[in-house]
Amino acid sequence: MSDPPSYAPPPDAYLRTLLLAVLAGGLLNTIGLPLGWMVGAMLSTAWLGWRGAAAVPKFLRPAGLVVLGLGLGQGFTAPVMAAVASSLPAILAGGVLSILAGLAVAPLYARIARSDARTAYYAAIPGGIVTMAVLAQRAGAAVSAVTVAQTIRMAVVVLTFPALVAVIAVGGRDAAFSAALPGFAWGGMALLLACGALAALLGAWAGLANAAMIAPCLLAMGLSGSGLLPSSIPRWMVDAAQLAMGASLGLRLTPQSLGGGPRRLAAAGLASALAVGVLLALLGLGLGWLSGLPPVAVVLGMAPGGMPEMAVTAKALDLAVPLVLGFHLVRTVLCNLLVGPIWRLALALGLVRRPPPEDHGG
């Protein structure tokens, strides 16, 4: 469910994909595009994938997530943790509003894709590809349609949101969410990477969602908060993690992975654009103004993209990274806890209709 379907790539496909991803990512980064490494790798890999010539090693994304988790967690010094904790009411409100935004967008998806209401709901909630696919399966929704919609929206967000946020990013940096990091040390970095990989394995064994990123992030948060971080994670390693995530996402945008008809893809793209461009952006700006938090950082925290993608966007734009990460971490937890109950409440209140069996969106 979480991995794109496999096919037999040509023997040189791995090298070709890597070289083109590096070239495209480096070009977009050089011209100053936010998240250039990720966007370039995603577009180039998708371009190759549509020709059956792309191949990405399965370990690449989890390895990139380990690095990214460590890089994001290192900013959680004790003062920053205190600042994030004081923002918890706004973070909780943002998570609930994100789910409600998905509920509001779901009828549009259902109408265009001719989908049943349940599938449309799980397709529209901005909870991440894997999380929403798992929840959709438990709820009896059409998992393939939900996966396609979440993938398309993720691509739309990665392509548009960093550039849009960069335009209004003035004032998004807040000293309360910034921290002085220890210097870079090869030995300390090697130890940190080894411990991060071990934490990811233990997290996966324990059933932690998105363990490859969250477990190393929690480890780095603990070390940073206690002043025991042995080394900082340098920018070039974060860029390499961007490259890995972009290539992995690009492989999901191939015909083998997407499937479905054009109406479904159009519905997913339109619903994503609506959620990103209007509803969640306005809610984020309003919540930031009411709470006194940096509005641009709150917008990025409520963006309907994945946690890794939006957190690395915040890092690239030097926006309150711990705050943005806090929004996405809490939203992931709230999606697991509240998506099902909110759906049942909406049914009880008549906000959505129970479709006849023949209208199920497959």
Automatic annotation (TrEMBL):
One Pfam family, short name: AbrB
rRNA processing found in the keyword field: no
Domain of life: Bacteria
Keywords: Membrane, Transmembrane, Transmembrane helix
Signal sequence, renumbered to the chain: none
One cellular component term from this protein's GO annotations in UniProt: membrane
Transmembrane feature ranges: 20-50, 62-84, 90-109, 121-140, 152-172, 184-205, 211-229, 265-290
A GO BP annotation: regulation of gene expression
InterPro entries xref list: AbrB_fam
Protein name: AbrB family transcriptional regulator
Lineage start: Bacteria, Pseudomonadati, Pseudomonadota, Alphaproteobacteria, Acetobacterales
